[in-house]
Each structure stands twice: as structure tokens, then as C-alpha cells.
Specification:
With 187 residues, this protein is α/β, with parallel strands linked by helices. 57% of the residues lie in helices and 14% in strands. It contains nine helices and five strands, in the order βαβαααβαβαααβα. The protein has a five-stranded parallel β-sheet with strand order 2-3-1-4-5, sandwiched between helices. The longest helix is centred in the last third of the chain and has 15 residues. Bound molecules: adenosine-5'-diphosphate. Adenosine-5'-diphosphate binds next to α2 and α3.
């Protein structure tokens, strides 16, 4: 079983690339953002708990996303691998993921980080806001908060995975195809 992780700030293009890569390599794409939005549209209890946090650009509780990830992994025992997108987002989540995979005899193979600067994050999200109509894309204070949250809570994972020798970076300022080719060469 292979476990890949796509890493990067909001708007880096993780979701776009993950869909293409999942198709090419027959990986199960797990986006915690998509899973949470599904819970919200189903009006589940979990969705209700997550909605206000997501709309404000804050992270949802670690325990909630960790449980979703565990369900996805255990619900798909026959796939050749998984591609995580938007998870982990905190060191605690990364530790929980390592423990979860270790229990199942696995480990993260590679973390592929898509590098874009904050100015491009704004530009990309503004463009996406018109297409996807996500509440958290619609307002510049919320976008700023998501970028701040990324730097504070998520960026420490760079060192976490570098220390394990699993961290690879690619430049995210290019066409979808250019970035796809760069990631493919790492997988
Ligand atoms: P983006 O990468 O553009 O921010 P996502 O769909 O990955 O979009 O995430 C949207 C929101 O969902 C996040 O701002 C956060 O509120 C919530 N979320 C997604 N993944 C996680 C996670 N691993 N931990 C906590 N919250 C998460």
C-alpha cells in the first residue's frame, strides 16, 4: 500500500492535482475539505460542528478529521494506495496519521509540497470564489485568516517530514500540466 501526501497552502492547486494523480495512479484521493463539505451538505451533526469553523477559515478539531481519515482508510482496503490532500494540517494530525498507518503496517511514502507565495494564494482563491462559491473563499479577511493558520499550524509539518527524509518540493507557479508532470516524476 502506497501513501502519498500533497502539501501546500490553500489555493496551491492540491485538489486539482490530486484528482489527476488519483486517476493516473489509481490512488484513492482523500480530501478532508471535500469530506467536511459533504457532511455540511448532508446536514449531519459533524457537519454542523464543522461549518462555523470552516466558514471563518479556522481549522476543524483534530479528532474529527482524524476519525474521517481512519474511516476512509478502513473503508477502502483493496485500493493500491491513498493520496491525502489537506490532511494532515497540524503536527498532532501528522502524528495521529503515522500511528494509524503504523498500526496497519504502512507509512507515508512521500510528501509532495506545492510551493506558491501568499500573493498568488490570494489571486487563485479570488478566481476560485467565482467558480465554486465557497463561503471561505468569498472574503479577504477569511482568506487572510486561512493563510495565517497555514503558516502557524501547518507549515511546521515541513520540518516534521524533512526530518523523516520524506519531504519533496515543487514550484506551483506553472500550468496545471507542468505541475502534474513534476509531481508525476516524484511518484
Ligand atoms: P483549502 O486548502 O483551499 O483551504 P480545503 O478544502 O482543504 O481548502 O479546506 C477547507 C477548510 O476545511 C479548512 O479551512 C478547514 O476549516 C477545514 N479542514 C480541511 N482539512 C482540515 C484538516 N486536516 N484539519 C482541520 N480542518 C480542516
Amino acid at each position: 500500500m502506497k501513501y502519498y501526501l500533497l502539501f501546500g497552502p490553500p489555493g496551491a492547486g492540491k485538489g486539482t492535482q490530486a484528482k489527476l494523480l488519483a486517476d493516473k495512479y489509481n490512488l484513492r484521493h482523500i480530501s478532508t475539505g471535500d469530506l467536511l463539505r459533504r457532511e455540511i451538505s448532508n446536514k449531519s451533526e459533524l457537519g454542523l460542528a464543522a461549518k462555523a469553523l470552516m466558514d471563518a477559515g479556522n481549522l476543524v478539531d483534530d479528532s474529527i478529521v482524524e476519525k474521517m481519515i481512519e474511516n476512509e482508510i478502513d473503508g477502502n482496503p483493496t485500493v493500491p494506495g491513498f493520496l491525502f490532500d489537506g490532511f494532515p494540517r497540524t503536527v498532532a494530525q501528522a502524528e495521529a496519521l503515522d500511528a494509524l498507518l503504523e498500526k496497519r503496517g504502512g507509512a507515508i511514502d512521500k510528501v509532495i509540497s506545492i510551493i506558491i507565495d501568499d500573493a498568488l494564494v490570494y489571486e487563485r482563491i479570488a478566481h476560485r470564489a467565482a467558480v465554486e462559491k465557497r463561503k471561505d473563499d468569498s472574503n479577504s479577511d477569511i482568506i487572510k485568516n486561512r493563510i495565517k493558520t497555514y503558516h502557524q499550524m501547518t507549515e511546521p509539518l515541513v520540518d516534521y517530514y524533512k526530518d523523516k527524509g520524506k519531504y519533496f518540493e515543487i514550484e506551483g507557479d506553472g500550468t496545471i500540466e507542468e505541475i502534474f508532470n513534476k509531481i508525476s516524476s516524484l511518484i
